[in-house]
Every structure is written in C-alpha cells, then in structure tokens.
Amino acid sequence: MDFLTEAPLDLAELVAEVSDTDRGGVATFLGLVRDHHEGRRVLRLEYSAYGPMAEAECATIVAEAEARWPVRIAVRHRLGMLAIGDAAVAVAAGGAHRDEAFAACRQVIEELKRRVPIWKKEFYADGSVGWVEPT
Amino acid sequence: MADTPFLRVLLFARYADLLGTDLLRLPVPEPPTVARVIELLRQRPGGAQLPAMPLVAVNARQARGSDPVQAGDEVAVLPPMAGG
C-alpha cells in the first residue's frame, strides 16, 4: 500500500475504499495548503519524506485505528511541490456508525502529524524559504 | 556490501541543509552506538546546530542513543515531523 504519492489527492477515491453495504458512516479529513504561516504570506509548499519509514508508520497507524474501532481506514499524503489550496493529506474512516468513524479519523490524522517522517518547506512571498517545525 | 565497515547516514529537511548534504558514508564509530554517530555528525561543518539527541531511525525503525549500529546500517537523522 502506498500512502505517499506525488499525484493530486482524490477524496472520493478514499471514500469509496472505506465504504461498504454495512457501513453507515464515513468521516473524512482533508488538509489543505494554507496561504499564511505565523503572519507570513506563503506562496507554495514542498513536502518531502523518509519514504520507507513513512510508509511503515502509516501502515501501523491505520492498523492501530482498525484494531481500536470497527472501521476501515484510507490515508494518503502528497509529496513534492504543492500550490495554495492543494490537498496535502486525506483521511477517510468508514464504520457502521458515525461515532467510530469520527473518532478513528481524528486519531489517524493526529498520529500521522506526530509520527510520520514528513517535512514541509515553505516558500514565502518575500523570496525566503523556511522549514516548518510543528507547534 | 554487508561486510564493509560503513554506515549510510541519511539527513533530512533542515538537517540536510545544516550539514550541506543528505547522504554521508561514515565508518562505523567506536563505540558503535547511535549516540556516537550523532556526536561525530555534530563535529562536522554545520553540525553544531544539530540537537544533542535528535530523533534517529536505524534501518527505518526509531532508535535510542544507546542502540548499537553495525556495518551496512542505514541511520536516518530526523527533524521534528511536520506532515499534514
């Protein structure tokens, strides 16, 4: 399973992956590239990753959520140069009911941000660049 | 290659900028530990700004300073993660 991709993200594809006749609730999260960071205007972002570890960590995070709740999870994170408004990360969680779908979706995005070795470089309007450190 | 006494050291994001490269081939240090690898990296030009104990993975698994390294290992030095 490739969780990392250079191709544009398609949320509908993830929703389809986690949907089934016995699942009545699908919760999704889409993380978009924002045009500002700490008061500075951002023109674009470049995502990079330690590929083998990032893939393994995503698989672990999905397995943890699927073990904790009766859900099916789909996740993708985009790499490379992204424009403002592009989707950088997408999560879908499908379950029988909304409670487990919301809870699992939330856990997956939080764990992904905390544990998956991905970095982003911001390109600012003033021509400078900076690595974003988590807050 | 497994018997060559070298480590493959990967540097990412800001740490690659600090050291001026994203890939180094280092002899297995003495003592052969993650902590010693980091000490040696911090002695290189630009390396002083590395944290004393950054996040490290050996062969794509998170490692501690006291963990051993051996010839052929891939040692990745990871800045704070910033995905999403």
Describe this structure in words.
The complex is a heterodimer of chains A (135) and B (84). With 135 residues, chain A is of the alpha+beta class. Chain A has a single domain, classed as Aldehyde Oxidoreductase, domain 3 (Alpha-Beta Complex), CATH 3.90.1170. Helices cover 33% and strands 39% of the residues of chain A. Chain A has three helices and nine strands. In chain A, strands 3, 4, 6, 8 and 9 form a five-stranded antiparallel sheet that branches. A four-stranded mixed sheet of chain A has the order 1-5-7-2, with helices on both faces. The model of chain A has no long low-confidence stretch (mean pLDDT 96). The longest helix of chain B is centred in the middle third of the chain and has 9 residues. Chain B has a single domain, classed as Roll (Ubiquitin-like (UB roll)). With 84 residues, chain B is α+β, with helices and mostly antiparallel strands. Chain B is globular. The model of chain B has no long low-confidence stretch (mean pLDDT 95). In chain B, strands 2-1-5-3-4 form a five-stranded mixed sheet. In chain B, strand 3 and strand 4 form a beta hairpin. At the A-B interface, strand 4, helix 2, helix 3 and strand 8 of A face helix 1 of B.
Keywords:
heterodimer; A: 135 residues; alpha+beta; Aldehyde Oxidoreductase, domain 3; four-stranded mixed beta sheet; 33% helix; elongated; B: 84 residues; Ubiquitin-like (UB roll); five-stranded mixed beta sheet; 2 helices; globular
In short:
The complex is a heterodimer of chains A (135) and B (84). In chain A, 33% of the residues lie in helices and 39% in strands.
